[in-house]
Amino acid sequence: MAAVFDRIDPRTEGGALTSTGEARDFFELLKPRVMLLVVVTALGGMATAPGSVHPVLGLAALLAIAVGAGASGCLNMWYDADIDKLMTRTAKRPIPAGRILPSEALAFGLTLSVGSVLVLGLVANLLAAGMLAFTIFFYAVIYSMWLKRWTPQNIVIGGAAGAFPPMIGEAVVTGDFGMHSLVLFAIIFLWTPPHFWALALVKSEDYARAGIPMLPNVAGAAATRRQIMAYSLVMAPVAVLPALMGFGGLVYLVVSVITGLAMIGLAVRVLRTTQGEAASKACYALFAFSILYLFLLFAVLLAENSLGLMWALPKVIG
């Protein structure tokens, strides 16, 4: 049983182990940057949902969703500690760096998982809580323990975990989910492969050293670049759908079109720039802009629907 809880001990061989971790190390286990994106996308689902929720209950629900996202990130770090220590990008994380014991991370992640689901069930409804529980399970078990180490399509399938928050957000408000949050799900789902594969192209040696079958290591850099291009070409028009369906306004239409074209342009640059430092810069540029892209889309939706800034367009779809 101890081998299960302490998957690796990066600090010492034998002897009693005590944690040297501080509060910031436990916070790092929650992947705070990912949590921020989850909060923004869940808020987008809540803001565009038909209906309303009491602000206090909505805030409590959002906090529970954020904690659930952090819990899944913590469990991911616990399970991936053995490969994280082999990769330059992740070697300084709290577990491989020896500041947090794997057993502590596991207990922390499980406690937050159960607590966040229970709180969401109490302040919202069972559907929202069940969807949060499934999202945590999907990311921690299906993606982290199975897909990531088994298939080069790990990011594609596993990307569903990051796409669920808008659906959870709508479920908080309505007790159900419909086309609004499904479209938002599709945007995030299609966004995930070009976002992560751009980084994977640069970090392919890291993934090879850790034995992770990322697409560049299995299918090659050229095929990965073509996949990035293909997903970007599909994602950009899908991201315009909220304006066409009436839950995004004129500002959203302008922002989604301009940033979508920028994403396609950066994908073209990645496709065409294949050698040397210029290729790495192209990949980093796409990776960095993709984060801004998703944040802008959901921030505009949130502002339009929550702050009375909606200049609605004629509904084309739905």
TrEMBL record:
Q: Which domain of life is it from?
A: Bacteria
Would the keyword Iron be found if you checked this record's keyword annotation? no
Q: What more does the entry say?
A: Carbon 2 of the heme B porphyrin ring is defined according to the Fischer nomenclature.
Organism, as annotated: Bosea vaviloviae
- Gene field: ctaB
According to the record, the segments passing through the membrane are 34-53, 59-79, 100-120, 126-147, 154-173, 179-202, 228-245, 251-271, 283-303
Q: What protein name applies here?
A: Protoheme IX farnesyltransferase
Listed GO molecular functions? protoheme IX farnesyltransferase activity
Which PROSITE patterns is this protein grouped with? UBIA (PS00943)
What kind of membrane protein is this, topologically? Answer: Multi-pass membrane protein
The record's section on Pfam families has: UbiA (PF01040)
Sorted alphabetically, the Gene Ontology BP terms of this entry are:
heme O biosynthetic process
Q: In which pathway does it act?
A: Porphyrin-containing compound metabolism; heme O biosynthesis; heme O from protoheme: step 1/1
